[in-house]
Amino acid sequence: MEPDTIAEVARQAADMAAGAAGMGEDGHGAAGHATVPYIREMLVFLVASVLLVPLFRWFKASPVLGYLFVGAIIGPFGFAIIDDVDGVARMAELGVVFLLFMIGLELSVERLKAMRTMVFGLGFAQVIVSGAVIGAVALWWGNSVQASIIIGLCLALSSTAVVMQLLMERGEFASRMGRTGFAILLAQDLAVVPLLMLVTIFAAGESGHVTELVGTALLRAVLAVVVIIVAGRWLVRHLYRMVTWTQSPELFMALTLLAVLGTAWFTGLAGLSMALGAFLAGLLLSETEFRHQVETDIEPFKGLLLGLFFISIGMQINFGVLAETWVNVTIGVVGLIVLKFLILTALVKAFSLPLSTSLRTGLLLAAGGEFAFVGVTAAMGSDIISEPVGQYMLIVAAVSMAMTPFLADLGTFLKRKLDDRTGGEPIQATGDEARGLEGHVIIAGYGRVGQTVANLLADLKHPYMALDLNVPRTRDCRSRGEPVYYGDAAKPDVLERVGADHAGAVVITLDNFAAASRAVEATRERWPSIPIFVRAWDMTHSDELLKLGATGVVPETLESSLQLAGQVLESLGTPREAVGDIITRIRNRDYADVHPDDPADATGQGKAAAE
User: Fold this and answer.
1) CA-CA distance, 374 to 359, in Å (whole number)?
2) Among residues 64, 574, 48, 74, which one has the least CA distance to residue 315?
3) Neighbours of 7 (CB within 10 A)
4) Residues in the chain, pLDDT under 50
5) Phi-psi group of 423: left, alpha or beta (phi > 0 → left; psi -120 to 50 → alpha; rest → beta)
């Protein structure tokens, strides 16, 4: 079947679907009533996404690339199934708004404080240095100063969506390389807001003095931020508490949408980017107890709208340029990856991280990212970047993003080669590994229980470091990128090397009674205020650990017995609520606090794990 025939069939299918929804050729239904705007485009978007995006997931490629491919197929440079690119793009801008809201939700003040050295030091250094070097290359190729600055900053950013997906799929988020890459990505996400403001300033530069425009934009930004933070911090928390009292999921969702769109609209009125308002709304909510529920509720909206945004970007990419100028595109992709790899590797190494971590981080973040599409498209719409240059940059970013999984595999290969030099010696922490960490969890014992705790922390994106005395186990875990080191948790100097001075908690999962007791005693003596949670064998062991200063204990035999008994009772017809009440009563009875005259309680450390 010829391409024109395929396109015609697709258009007819879309028209039939639109007709079924009550539309005629004139945009009105059978009764002459106006129809929902862009319903035909939305139907095409949904059908194409459902059919094509799963194929990219099957090939373990990023959904972002799938959405771009869908847009290229249905857009004017493909089969021209949808030709109203501007209309779809305006609606798709909501995807960027929700993306920035989710980033703000992730960037809690506490998280930024714990990772401040890596984020504001290494991360911002990467954005500035990479942006300057890439911008200088763009200027050398004949672009204007404004266009070169935007191109440099856009291509300096990496793909948060692709990189985070790879780290989570490979279980490497909690590794040293994963933590370093995440810190750099956080800095890049923070840089998006001033980047979009810069596009607005440059766009208005043709009609006014740049210095005055910069001053006005900064003044507006400061005023908008102050109003949102001062008024929003009080208002949002009280509104959420009021809505939560009604126990209505619909009202909770409505309030979340109001918070996102309301702040976006407010910053838009102030002449700033709507994405800035959404980012601030997310940052405010990240400090509340409603954060996790908001994140769960908003995720489907963000995913769909962001998918629509990338489809609208794909509709504007002329992949015919790739066929005509594949040599220049290849040079651009290779040049971008090499430049960013060299800069990233050098900067990570300069922050006293090992060579293997530096190489892997450099390769993982060397490609372009989704925000290149945001910035370049905005600059093209404002005539800062010409259409041919913009098309070229979009293709370079898309092709480099597609290479990210291969670059990550290359980094893993190089790490293995470097690790082979160490032979079979146990890998011990030196102290540099914990540099930049604060509030992390130290896990003593990396058996089945310790690994379960670590997996939960990794899923919650909370940093941890683990100690174990099993050499084969530590080397195997290290080969997977997990932050596990050989060391005895009963020795304070070993705990100091994994950052006990600024850790948030210590979890002791050792299966040896005497070793666990020594670890609790040594930790409590050196660090009196740090929370210590311990796995115990039985209630006798639990009492002993609490007396030594454990904050909380979980008796393994009791917990397994309770879970087993609960399943038996449910199978015999006992209601689940009744089983839960019984188990809770037993826990409250057997996890009783130590008596006030016990040493542990005198230091305020005698709370049971159930609390």
Assistant:
1) 28
2) 74
3) 16
4) 1-3, 5-7, 9-10, 13-14, 16-18, 20-34, 207-208, 423-425, 593-611
5) left
Cα 442 to Cα 485: distance, rounded to the nearest angstrom: 11
| Spatial distance between the Cα atoms of 307 and 66, rounded to a whole number of angstroms | 9
Which amino acid type is present at position 556?
Answer: E
Strand order in the sheet with 441-444: 484-486, 464-468, 441-444, 505-508, 532-536, 552-555
Cβ count within 10 A of residue 215: 11
**Is-contact 506 456, C-beta < 8 A?**
no
Q: What is the rounded distance in angstroms from the CA atom of residue 260 to the CA atom of residue 280? A: 9
| Cα separation, 165 vs 494, whole angstroms | 33
Q: What is the pTM of this model?
A: 0.60
Q: What token pair was written down for 325?
A: 């100028």
The candidate with the shortest Cα–Cα distance to 280, out of 105, 526, 95, 480, is 105
Amino acid at 323: A
Strands 464-468 and 552-555: unpaired
Measure the CA–CA gap between 70 and 65, rounded to whole angstroms: 9
Q: Which two tokens stand for residue 279?
A: 């980012």
Pick from 492, 493, 468: nearest CA to 482:
468
pLDDT in tens, 27-77: 444 444 445 666 777 787 777 777 777 777 777 666 777 777 888 788 777
SS3 30: coil
The span from the CA of 173 to the CA of 462, in Å, is 9
H helices of 39-84, in order, are 39-58, 63-74
Question: pLDDT tens for residues 356-409?
Answer: 888 999 999 999 887 888 788 888 888 889 888 888 898 898 888 878 888 988
Which pLDDT does position 138 carry in this prediction?
Answer: 92
* Residues 296, 299: Cα–Cα separation, whole Å: 6
Residues 416 and 427 sit within 8 Å (Cβ to Cβ): no
State the amino acid at position 256 in one-letter form.
T
